[in-house]
Amino acid sequence: MRGSRVEGLIYYLYGPGRANEHVEPHLVAGWRHPAELEPDLRPDGTRDFRRLNGLLKQPVAALGERGYDEPVWHCVARAAGEDRFLDDDEWAMVAHEIMHHTGLAAADDDEAVRWVAVRHAPDHIHIVATLARQDGVKPKTWNDFYRVREACQAVERRFGLRVTAPGDRTAARRPTRAETEQARRRRWVEAPRIVLRRHVITAAGGAASEGEFFGRLEAAGVLVRKRFSERDPGEVTGYAVALPVHVTRAGEPVWYGGGKLAADLTLPKLRARWNPRNAVGRDSGTGVSEVSAKLLARTAVRQAAKDVGSEEEFFARLKDAGLLVRWRVSERDPGEVTGYAVALSGFRDRSGGLRWFAGGRLADDLTLPKLRLRWAGTSPRVEEITAAERQAIFEDAVAIAGRAAEQIRQCAVGDPAAGDAAWAASDVLHVAASMLDDPALRRAADAFDRAAREPYARIPDPGAAGNSLRVVARLMAAAGAMPGNDTVAALVRNLGLVVVAVAELREFQRRMAHAAGARAAARHLRTAGVGTGRGASVQARLAGLDFPGRPAARQAGTRQGEGRSRRGPEPPSARRGPGR
Predict the structure, then answer these.
(1) What integer is the mean pLDDT of 408-419?
(2) Which helix (H) or strand (E) element contains residue 520?
(3) pLDDT of residue 147
(4) Do residues 430 and 440 make contact, with C-beta atoms less than 8 angstroms apart?
(5) Cα–Cα distance list, 487 to 95, 436, 484, 555 (Å)
(6) Cβ–Cβ under 8 Å, residues 421 and 404
(7) pLDDT band at 457, cuts 50/70/90?
(8) What DSSP assignment string belongs to 534-549?
(9) Under a CB-based contact definition with an 8 Å cutoff, are residues 195 and 578 in contact?
(10) Is the pLDDT of residue 168 over 90?
């Protein structure tokens, strides 16, 4: 954490705490021996902090305007609840390790920043440093979060404490303490940051293009603000999202950029999902039926036709979405376009040729003449999916998820396609949780979140299993409603197979925090009971389908690791938080 007043922080750390939880506060380490720096006791029993505060502030005053606006660096190091209590000497070693790894006060640097470590509880310490070196140089704090993480792992190994995950940027950004306290005060179930992350992942998983992504967010009731390039005002370079119920005292929305939600939710990272080379159906072995291919094409065409004013713009959007387009021209006037057809790259018919869908075959309102009437403002929109189509779509989803699980198991440990499949599986779980409106599925999607990401926000190369799972996510999002219980149970079971396959992969890769997340997701899926009225019947069908249990390691010796509306966010009430 960063702050501007060291006096207030030191006073708080030596004080009783908010609920008298501070017991026997004292220094255990510092840039000098703690006995030299410990604040003196006054006759009345209070502490005199003037000398310590003055020493900490001296380098900051010498640096002057060249220093940081917030020169107080504050780090809390806490042992896990099941760990033994460390003594003062061991906590001193922890503090020195952290300061050394961050580079703020290396072991052999006598001119480093000034700092102290305060202990006022058995299980943690507070490290306070002022960001000004004693030689008059401004210290660097770049990536200090990750250097602290490395120091903690070194200490865990040295003292035999619980081993935690590396700082590899796969964990989502947690709510700040202020956000958590605000959610508690307003009696929200979750902090807005968590709600927004779930909305963004779900919208991205169900979308095939950037425009559809923003449209899905707005349809879910999320506020969207786009960031445009200064050089090219028409180019979108980023975005931010907010909940209508989460506002400042002035009534302004509290915005979160995609990167503040998770490392893979920036606009450039999301665009990698919609790149034409990652287009659904790129692998001809996806096994998608004619009905599902037709629905995907129909959804893409409807999105392209939305909010355009001419057919030139319409056809340009079709190409941007990765669709292949061909035109039908008049026999009398070869320059007149009378119709069109589209194909999804990779979807083949039995003869091996592309599956072409004319606009009228997709839907009656998608013929070129009727689209021209719509753009002229004289034709209503019609969007319908029949029950038979919906059933066929989810049967495809069941089959694709089952094949994807097997493909993940066959991936080599270092195969980038395995990471792509895990990433796409997260999209499927989030879309399924939104579609099925099931708390257990929602918990499964949240638990799986970290297991899906590659270290350091790397985007894996697309593979067959990942592209197939993206087909599943987009099929479910396009279908708009659920079929019968048997299909739902089979889909949840096969999603469980995918999650178990990813857990086994992460264990074999020795990424234990990620494997633990995938295992937790599998446990939640096992308890899924979709909706409020048919949960018991779905759970019974899951039991009959031999739902997968705890994943086993791929190789001997591998270490074991560690009812709401879909319409969008709701206003907070005494019992509910911002819509989830």
Answers:
(1) 78
(2) helix 512-526
(3) 92
(4) no
(5) 55, 12, 6, 34
(6) yes
(7) confident
(8) SHHHHHHHHHHTT---
(9) yes
(10) no
pLDDT (tens digit per residue) in 352-389: 778 899 999 998 888 999 888 888 876 555 556 778 88
The candidate with the shortest Cα–Cα distance to 180, out of 192, 198, 165, 167, is 192
Q: What is the mean pLDDT of the chain?
A: 85
User: Where along the chain do its domains lie?
Assistant: 2-159, 177-275, 290-375, 387-544
Residue 297's CB: how many other CB atoms inside 10 A? 26
Give the residues across from 226 on adjacent strands.
239
Q: Tokens at residue 100, please?
A: 């050394």
| Length reported for the chain | 580
C-alpha span between 299 and 309 (Å, rounded):
18
Q: Looking at the DSSP assignment, which residues form a beta bridge with residue 343?
A: 324
CA distance 437 to 569: 14
- Judged by phi (left if over 0) then psi (alpha if -120 to 50, else beta), residue 352 lies in left
Q: What is the C-alpha to C-alpha distance for residues 509 and 532, in angstroms, rounded to an integer?
A: 39
Average pLDDT of the residues in 416-444: 89
- Reduced to 3 states (helix: H, G, I; strand: E, B; else coil), residue 392 is helix
- Domain over 2-159 is classified CATH 1.20.120: no
Evaluate if residue 236 carries a pLDDT over 80. yes
Global pTM value: 0.76
For residue 578, give the 3-state DSSP assignment. Answer: coil
What does the pLDDT read at residue 302? 86
The model's confidence at residue 195, banded by pLDDT at 50, 70 and 90, is: very high
Q: Judge whether residue 308 has pLDDT over 90.
A: no
Select from 571, 578, 562 the least CA-distant residue to 80: 562
- If phi > 0 it is left, if psi is from -120 to 50 it is alpha, else beta; for residue 64 that is left
Task: With a cut of 60, say whether residue 456 has pLDDT above it.
Answer: yes
- CB atoms under 10 Å from CB of 407, counted, come to 22
Distance CA 343, CA 346 (A): 9
Dihedral, 150, 154, 155, 158 alpha carbons, nearest 10: 170
Alpha helix stretches (DSSP H) within 449-511 = 464-479, 485-508
